[in-house]
Amino acid sequence: MKQRLISAIKYILLFAAAVVLLWFSFREVKWNDFTEGLKSANYILIAASMAVSIAAFWLRSLRWRMIMLPLHSGIRRVDAWDGINIGYITNFALPRAGEFARCGVITRKTGLSFEKVAGTVVLERSVDLLSLAVFSTAIFVLQWSRFGNFIDKQIISAFGEKLSTGFGIIAITILATFAIFFYIVYAFRKKHPVFRKIANIVKGVLAGIVSGFRMKQKWLFIIYTILIWICYWLMSYTTILAFPSVAGLGISDALFLMVIGGFGWAIPVQGGIGAYHFIISLALATIYGIDQTTGVVFATISHGSQALTMIACGTLSLIGFSLFKGKNRSL
């Protein structure tokens, strides 16, 4: 009961954060212009962007499967595909819960332990974060004259106070607490069943992470990663081309918006709602002088098309997964 209450409070707070960010994004929007902006979009290009998005999902499922294969050779492409899609749609209900959901899908369909699957997810998400960091560094270093002002005023200054000595002390304290906790678990793992269970979970997660280093065709893994980010880049550029009011932006601008949008999706609110709209419209206004209404229209269509694709693919995968479970129960 207590756990359900905590989950409910967490859900409400995150949903409230999404609403607040949406309010900040839409508060000065001129609704007549907003409607006209939606009408002006080229939805054939938006559909093309959604098709590229599906290609990115498929590539992600292939890459994830590569990490899991050393742990279980029977994992099919459709298993990883369903896991990715169900994870996406779950994030719209509860932020970050999608990572647990896709682990559950693989565990249910293959029998591979949840902990080991979770380890592969940790590795895969770490690769994504590293890739985002590389793209961020590249775009900001190579195009600092254009994007530096936005980074300096909107990000560095905004978080400058948090990156203080006090914040560093808190971070060190948290790391030290985790280190002590894991030491205690390791030291007493044979003396108490609770510690033994925790140790087994950690061992399973580490096994999942290590599996990535034992996979075959590592170069193919790198190629998949590059292709995934190219797809994200194309999605951003195609969406730009779909709007006459921002069609003057180039491919480097699409890369910048992809990176900034990635941070918006990463913020732990339901499906990036509000956070994506806020950061994209802010970037368009600060760097390109694009009015808020146009920026919000662009963010709404960009986010909406991606969200619709995730929900559609997730729904189809959920249906397939339900049929799979029904088949298992009948055996």
Provide a quick synopsis of the model.
The protein is mostly helical and 331 residues long.
Helices and strands in order, then pairings?
Layout: H1 2-26, H2 31-40, H3 43-68, H4 77-91, H5 97-110, H6 114-142, H7 144-160, H8 165-187, H9 193-214, H10 218-241, H11 251-266, H12 275-288, H13 292-330
Helix pairs in contact: 1-12, 2-13, 3-4, 3-6, 3-10, 3-13, 4-5, 4-13, 5-6, 6-7, 6-9, 6-11, 8-9, 10-11, 11-12, 12-13
3D architecture notes:
- The chain has 331 residues and is mainly α.
- The protein has a domain at 43-150 and 208-326.
- The chain is built from 13 helices and no strands.
- It has helices at 2-26, 31-40, 43-68, 77-91, 97-110, 114-142, 144-160, 165-187, 193-214, 218-241, 251-266, 275-288, 292-330.
- Helix 12 packs antiparallel against helix 13.
- The longest helix has 39 residues, at 292-330.
- Mean pLDDT is 79; it is low at 158-165 and 326-331.
Number of helices: 13
Strand content: under 5%
Radius of gyration: 22 Å
Overall 3D form: globular
Q: Please report the total strand number as a whole number.
A: 0
Helix content: over 70%
Mean pLDDT comes to 79
Distance between the termini: 34 Å
Sequence of secondary-structure elements: HHHHHHHHHHHHH
Which key terms come to mind for this protein?
13 helices, 83% helix, disordered C terminus, 331 residues, mainly alpha
